[in-house]
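Note to self: the last two entries modelled the partners one at a time, which told us nothing about the interface. This time every component goes in together.
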Amino acid sequence: MTKKILILPGDGIGPEIVAEAVKLLDCLRADFGLEIETETALVGGAAYDDCGSPLPESTLDLAKAADAVLLGAVGGPKWEPLEIALRPEKGLLGLRAGLGLFANLRPAILYPQLAEASTLKPEVVSGLDIMIVRELTGGIYFGQPRGVETLASGERRGINTLVYTESEIERICRVAFEAAMRRGKRLCSVDKANVLECTELWREVAIRVGRDYPEVELSHMYVDNAAMQLVRAPKQFDVMVTTNMFGDILSDAAAMLTGSIGMLPSASLNADNQGMYEPIHGSAPDIAGKGVANPLATLLSVAMMLRYSLAAPEHAERIEQAVSKVLDRGLRTGDIASPGTETVGTAAMGDAVLEAIRAAAA
Amino acid sequence: MTKKILILPGDGIGPEIVAEAVKLLDCLRADFGLEIETETALVGGAAYDDCGSPLPESTLDLAKAADAVLLGAVGGPKWEPLEIALRPEKGLLGLRAGLGLFANLRPAILYPQLAEASTLKPEVVSGLDIMIVRELTGGIYFGQPRGVETLASGERRGINTLVYTESEIERICRVAFEAAMRRGKRLCSVDKANVLECTELWREVAIRVGRDYPEVELSHMYVDNAAMQLVRAPKQFDVMVTTNMFGDILSDAAAMLTGSIGMLPSASLNADNQGMYEPIHGSAPDIAGKGVANPLATLLSVAMMLRYSLAAPEHAERIEQAVSKVLDRGLRTGDIASPGTETVGTAAMGDAVLEAIRAAAA
Ligand SMILES: [Mg+2]
Ligand SMILES: [Mg+2]
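The predicted structure of the combined assembly is written out below.
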């Protein structure tokens, strides 16, 4: 059955990098029989400029009707003076909420060809391939009560609430176990169960869900130790699953281990495997329109889309292998350039990936 | 005026490493005019074995009467079967609570001589010298309400509460600004003010306290970015101040950047600069009694004690410089040994530090 993909170029370098993803999808459709149809819509600052809202209803409707959404990036200095409700980032949050995207998948992958980009020693990180599954719609970022109250003494007190129900924990753990089944079958659940009762419940539910996945080796780690282990020996991990806030912190730390943020994709999924896919880097307004942005994180986001929402892992592998080939050839965009490599622009990098895909099939 | 120091050797390697600290204090008293008197007491498993409590009242009373407490380490497999209230770790928590130690100072220092021990590239971490100031008695680890409740639907829900009053934030920020004044005069306050109202209040109070320290350059960073920056460019930081939980995570990550946990001291202070000083490594029961444990973190804890509780920074510097000299000589305990260095035991390392102190004064 033909799958629907909604393309949201967004702002800054978004349109340039997404253009390469569109070329890639066209190639997979034309030459490799991928059954998809695509539509394009506005989000973020581009949508605000067009109709006064960072997430027009029509865009949200299209997103809901799609099997997957590919997003470039949103935001830029142009829209920073706007009130918060109108800012480009609200478009992103609105899509997450509107689609119920509770599972954020954040791979931290370091292609051996780029190992020198890391601040860590090559032997510690070369070939790193972790998947961090972060709960995205619950936990302390959303919990009630919250706010700042004034006590009888006149002193103020700030409050936020970490809260998870069993069902919220269960569904994110299930996503993580499914991810582990497609990978190395090892899952590390990160909590602070020795101190926080809420994450004691998290651990209990993780163990319970784990009974449905006897092939997956489940372990548990306290968040402070996980932060240490990511620095000490990151390759020990396969899939990690954790709360919204712990995932926010650990996924960013893990991304930085690779030293090449321009290479990292992400996925946000709901219970139906409907998903939004986007590079983790931002809209980079300083280089927008110059044709120098790195499109690889966006192309790798397409690979994640194929694997997680479109049930087409063979196409995902095509892309991932092609990216590795292109790096082998020594092609680099400016952000990942190093001595002895050839610096190319956005379109040339996209073309090289297509070429590698076609060559592998020839 | 003569200062009182309570010595708590504790469990595992605690007695061995603390013995070196006692030799050091004796030397500073006898040869360098440091006016101190010391007393020794039991805590942790050793106290439980003696009298059935990990924190005898007599020990807590002595701690309260002291200007500073030096702790080795507590815990070990022998006491793990005990109920939580009787476990050695409770001795530590009881001391923190009993003395009101709300400020945890966690340096992450990487002596250039040990730069190879890090998983990070030497140029990224050699000479690292960060101080993380963690709030220790408030925040989400202590907030009410907390626990697991059963909803009307029968589903369970876990809750913990992040809560800080202005005065709690103010006193920890004050400690951090004071620490910055003794160091590089740069303070980075870490929060998640864009999402958590409680830490929005944190930021506001940090700015207010900062008006009393016009010489200190105050900056702010979100916790996820701080976790990234510690990996990307840790030497950008001087002092960091943050909440209990963020500090738990970041101080452990920062410690691991050094790759030599056996070198790192810590301090926990109250409003009167009364403090408890201890190495961050544990009681290491596997090597206890063998005379091979690294005493340097404990000796550096004494240096922190001299600086923060005993107002004797000149003696602190003596110790720190002596440690550096001993490393220059190529002496190493097993945990920090590397090719081309000489492996020595606990007592020989302690002696070498004393010798270097005396040599520097000769
Ligand atoms: Mg983040
Ligand atoms: Mg910790």
